[in-house]
Each structure stands twice: as structure tokens, then as C-alpha cells.
Amino acid sequence: MLSRLIKLPVILVFILVLLMYVVDATGAGVSISFAYQGVISLAIFLFGLGIVAMGGYRFRKANTTVDPRNPEKTTSLVTDGLYRYSRNPQYIGFLLWLLAYTIYLGNVINLCFLPVFIVLVNSLFIRPEEAAMAKLFGKEFSIYQAKVRRWI
User: Fold this and answer.
1) Quick check: helix, strand or coil at residue 107?
2) Among residues of the chain, what percentage have pLDDT more than 70?
């Protein structure tokens, strides 16, 4: 059911951001503040944005889809750039966005949404994508899997 509602990882990020906002707005949890909190959260967000953009650029350069709704439409296996270090750098970027928002709000309870994101992104996107890659690219993908971790 969740997979029908949440078709794109950005929608999942948006939903979790809304939930974080609600938690903070209701006063639940423990709020903290510290020097440079806004600057640190902005830096983490921009770093995550850079990761997402670089990952997307590699997909476009390879002339393949970035759309996780149809992984079977992938035309080439991207293994260069950030994909030399992580099989899913864009999801790391999204996780950094959530971390940045958590720091910005300063509400410690919102840290609980980070593992929720990891579990959901694995079940809704990564597993289906990797199954499609294994089917499309066979041994080439197996070799890539053995050499490069997911990190999320």
C-alpha cells in the first residue's frame, strides 16, 4: 500500500519533513539550540543537494532514467562518479536533507525519522531498483555490488 502512495523518494522526504514540523510545532520532544545551528544545517543541506545533483548528472550523462518508478527502463549501469563509492548516493543526499532539517529545528525526537527514512527507502526503492538492475545487467551488476557498498 505504501508503495502505491509514495512513488518518488522526494515525496517520502516531503512527508517526513512535514511530520518533523508537526512534532516540533506541537512541542513534543526535546528542543536544543546551539551556535551556528542554522549555518550547520544549511551546509549539510547544500552538501546533500550537491550529492543529489551529481548523482542525477551522472544518470543524465549516461542517458538513462533517474526515475525510480520504472527501474526496468534503465539503459546503462552507472558506476562512475559518486557511484564508485556508493550504489545509492542520491538517497544519502536525501538523508542529509532530513538531517539538516532536524538540526535546523533542533528537536531531538526528529532524529527518529532518520532510521524510518532508511527502512522505507530500502523497501520502497532500493530493493526493487537493485532487483531490476540484477535482471537487466546480470553479472556486471553482481560485480558492481561486490565492489561498491550501498551506505544506506
Assistant:
1) strand
2) 97
Q: Are 86 and 150 in contact (CB under 8 A)?
A: yes
Whole-Å CA distances, 140 to 17, 57, 66, 76, 87: 37, 22, 19, 11, 13
Using left for φ > 0, alpha for ψ between -120 and 50, and beta otherwise, residue 64 falls in: beta
Chain mean pLDDT for the chain? 93
Contact (Cβ atoms closer than 8 angstroms) between residue 145 and residue 77 = no
Per-position b or e across 77-96, b if 16+ CB within 10 A of its CB: ebbeebbeebbbbbbbbbbb
Question: What residue type is 114 in one-letter code?
Answer: L
Domain ranges (residues) in the chain: 11-147
pLDDT (tens digit, 9 = 90+) per residue, 25-34?
998 888 999 9
Q: What is the pTM of this model?
A: 0.93
